[in-house]
Design a protein that fits this description.
single chain; about 280 residues; alpha+beta; Thrombin, subunit H; TolA/TonB C-terminal domain; 6 helices; 14 strands; about 25% helix; about 35% strand
Length: about 280
């Protein structure tokens, strides 16, 4: 028996922000031997620091993943890197590792909205029914109108932030819907396994001395665009420690692949490359 699950549970219980129940679809992207795997699930609770969910797949405490969920009435998804802090019978607790400011504002708005009790309306007068303990200043009409005005301004500001966040994140992870078709001018998406078999020249990355002294290890995941001639055209970090990611980028830029052909001609392709750093 190991103490890892109990330690993870203790960490999960020390929350700095309250979680509110919410039931929306959730997608988890995990790495299996360097290969991204999509796991469907359902969100059960949400806070600024993390999310609880039922996930149709096996994950381990301490594993780094990417999560995506859609909040009600918001047109763009919340996408964040997270780490598994609690696990038990397909129920997992995820702590956000990297969360954009605009996405944090969206979550903050929804957790506060979910935490607020519904207002009961008087059917005869069409006005809120106030409890006896409600302060008298809360009954003034002008204050209610002022709150509604600020709510509309906040909602417009959040939608603007959400649009900016979507622009920043739209290429961070591949689209999860299987039926989505790639754009005509976009590179052809090819699986990591297929491109790994087409490597003709590969340079192993140098382990950063600073990362070695700090005991850092794990996977550095990159999105790569391979040119028609098989050279690495562009790289974009997806996940991993910054020092390890930089070392992986420096090595992968010199890799050479066998040109990928589609309809009888070499084409530009996009794939995912995972480089593992392990301390001896």
């Amino acid at each position: 028996m190991t103490a890892a699950p109990s330690l993870a549970l203790e960490k999960a219980e020390r929350r700095f922000s309250p979680r509110c129940p919410i039931h929306v679809p959730l997608d988890v992207i995990a790495l299996r031997s360097g290969v991204p795997e999509d796991l469907p699930g359902r969100c059960t609770d949400l806070s600024e620091s993390g999310v609880g969910a039922m996930v149709a797949g096996e994950l381990s405490a301490g594993q780094q993943v990417a999560v995506e969920l859609r909040l009600p009435n918001v047109g763009v998804p919340v996408r964040a890197r997270a780490v598994v802090r609690h696990q038990g019978r397909l129920h997992y607790g995820f702590e956000f590792v990297v969360l954009a400011a605009d996405q944090r504002e969206m979550i903050r708005y929804w957790t506060r909205r979910l935490a607020s009790p519904p207002v009961e309306l008087d059917s005869a007068k069409g006005k809120p029914v106030l409890e006896e303990s409600t302060p008298i200043f809360a009954q003034s009409g002008p204050r209610i109108r002022l709150g509604r005005r600020w709510f509309n301004l906040l909602l417009a500001f959040m939608l603007l932030l959400a649009a900016l966040g979507w622009w920043q994140w739209q290429r961070s992870w591949k689209e999860l819907e299987a039926e989505a078709s790639p754009a005509k001018d976009a590179p052809l998406r090819v699986s990591p396994q297929t491109m790994e078999m087409r490597i003709v020249s590969k340079v192993e990355p140098a382990y950063p001395e600073e990362a070695r002294r700090a005991g850092k290890q794990g996977l550095a995941v990159l999105d790569a665009v391979i040119a028609p001639d098989g050279t690495v055209e562009r790289l974009r970090p997806v996940s991993g420690d910054d020092l390890l990611v930089k070392a992986a980028e420096a090595a992968v830029r010199s890799w050479k692949f066998e040109p990928y052909q589609s309809s009888g001609r070499a084409v530009e392709v996009e794939t995912t490359i995972a480089v593992e750093f392990r301390l001896n």
